[in-house]
Each structure stands twice: as C-alpha cells, then as structure tokens.
Amino acid sequence: MPQSIKSGDTPEFQAHLVDVLPHLSAFSRSLTRRRDQADDLVNDAIVRALSAADQFQPGTNFKAWMFTILRNLYYNEGRKNRGIVSLDDSDTMTPAVLPSQQAALEFCDFRRAFWELSDDHREVLILVGASGLSYEEAAEVCNCAIGTIKSRVSRARNELVRLLAGDNLRMSRTEAAAKAELDAGSFLDADTGIKAAASSGS
Amino acid sequence: MTETKKEAAAPDSEMSISDSDMTQRRWRQLSNGRLPGFDSPAQLDNWFDAQLVQIYAEVVSEPLPKEFLDLLDKLREKSKDNN
Fold first, then answer.
1. For domain A94-197, is the CATH number 1.10.3720.10?
2. Under a CB-based contact definition with an 8 Å cutoff, are residues A92 and A33 in contact?
3. Helix or strand holding residue B24 (H, E)
4. Overall pTM surpassing 0.80 (yes/no)
5. CA-CA distance, B69 to A16, in Å (whole number)?
6. d(Cα B27, Cα B43) in Å, to the nearest integer?
C-alpha cells in the first residue's frame, strides 16, 4: 500500500499504478461491457490519477482510489450514456476452459445472467465479490453508505437467482455461442459454453 | 477534482425482510431451479463469489494493452527528465 505518494512522477506511484492496472481494466470492463471503451476509460483514469496524485491519502487503499477516479469518469462525464450497449453488441469477458463440463455450463449461465444485471448491480458485485474491496471501501468508491452497498449486493444476488432459477436469460446458450463466434474469432461450444480456438480448421 | 464527494446516500429501501430471509429465499429458489442444489444459503453465496472471481480473474490475467504500456513508458521518461 502506498504510504508516501507525493507526485504522479515518482517511480513509486507508477509502480503502484502498474500493479493496479489489471484490476482497473476488470472493473472498467464490468462497467462498460466493451473492451475498447473500457480501455479508453482506463487510459483516461491513469491520466486523471497522475494529475491528482497529491490528493491520494497515504495509508488508504490505492486500488479503491483508482476505482473511484475511473467510476467518476464513467458516471460524471457522459460516458455512461455513450457506453450503453445491448447485450448483442457487448464484448464481454469470455470464459476460459473450465475443469468440468458441468462447471462450464454453470459458469456460462452465470455469465449471461451477470451481464443482464443493471449497472449498479454488476458494479457492486465486482467490487465486493471479486475485486476484494471491503463494504466500506466499496461504499467510498460508489459515494454511498455501507448499508446501501449491502442492500445492493443482496438485491443483485436475488436478481441473479431470478435470472438463473427462472431461466429468464435473454440469450440462449446457442445464441451466446453463435454471438461469441462472430465477435471474437472464437466460439463457445453451444452445449458446454467452453471457449475454443476458431482457427483450427473452421 | 473531488473524488470524495458524497451523494445523498439513504440506504436502498427494499429491505422489508431481513438479509437472512432473503438469503434463505434465494437458496430455496435455486435449489428448486435447474442449477444443482446447495446444502446451505452460505454455500450458494460462496458459489456466487466463485463465479464472480472467475469472471474478474479472466480480465486481470489478460496482457496489458500496448497503449497502457506506452503511456507508462512516457511517464518513466518524464520522471527521469524531472530528476
């Protein structure tokens, strides 16, 4: 954790930036759903962080601070509207090969449900459930109360259950597989949801 | 820049029933659904977390885009110039 950042020009600041960049990319992708827009957002967040490096409070969570900058850029500068995409247009995180077919099926369904959640719900699940932030840190990032974060997490999980248990997903596995093949030069097996190389003879 | 600005933050007001009731309800819904049953609500929440971590980890493990690396190189050069 950075303790004595004074300027964005320092090697220390840059080192911490490099460490947090993959996490920033993942958070950005969960907000925008699109790789190109996510990368643009991260790029701008880096520039903004460098210009505001003296505002970082030593001893606090650098990753949470960077997430806050990125989120503010997304919500406060018109990017949210610019970034609205339908699921059909999204370039979302694609699944890797999973150890078992059953796990792959479950993960495929979970992914589709996750991308159908609202922005607020995706955001809070990634912050608390995946990125490792505490409820308190997530509340700082989202500029809201801890209780709000907790209730959003609960509602997001309920919505996931509604989507998964009721089979209310807009895209079927087959459609998701066809979409992935068109988008990424790779395909999701319609039965397993497992990503495989498309260049091997097809 | 004010990164610490707080929005009006009344907790979301859907919680007329308790968190544990909600979790119990989620567990029952999924147990009756097409996903495999879970032995406890906690197990369901753990499963959710594992799926989220998987989604997140896939992006974290991707190589950094070249534009980020170029930007960081420029910063390092600028830092050297300043020293």
1. no
2. yes
3. helix B19-32
4. no
5. 14
6. 9
Q: What is the complex's ipTM, to 2 decimals?
A: 0.71
In chain A, which stretches have pLDDT less than 50?
Answer: 1-5, 83-89, 95-98, 181-202
Place of tokens 């600041």: A13
A11-82 classified as CATH 1.10.1740.10: yes
From chain B, pick out residues whose CB is under 8 angstroms from the CB of A68: 3-4
CA distance A120 to A153: 9
From chain B residues 3-62, the ones with a CB under 8 A of any chain A CB are 3-7, 9-12, 14-15, 19, 22-23, 25-26, 29-30, 32-36, 45, 48-49, 51-62
pLDDT digits (tens, 9 = 90+) for A60-95: 899 999 999 999 999 987 665 554 444 444 555 554
According to CATH, where is 1.10.1740.10 located in chain A?
11-82
CA distance A143 to A124: 12
Considering only CA atoms, which of A125, A128, A148 is closest in space to residue A138?
A128
- What does the block give as tokens for A54? 């003296």
DSSP string, A35-58: HHHHHHHHHHHHHHHHHTGGGS-T
Domain positions in chain B: 20-82
Q: Taking a C-beta distance cutoff of 8 angstroms, is the pair B42, A173 a contact?
A: no
Do the Cβ atoms of A50 and B82 come closer than 8 Å?
no
Q: What are phi and psi of A18, to 5 degrees?
A: -60, -40
Nearest to A147 among B11, B22, B58 (CB): B11
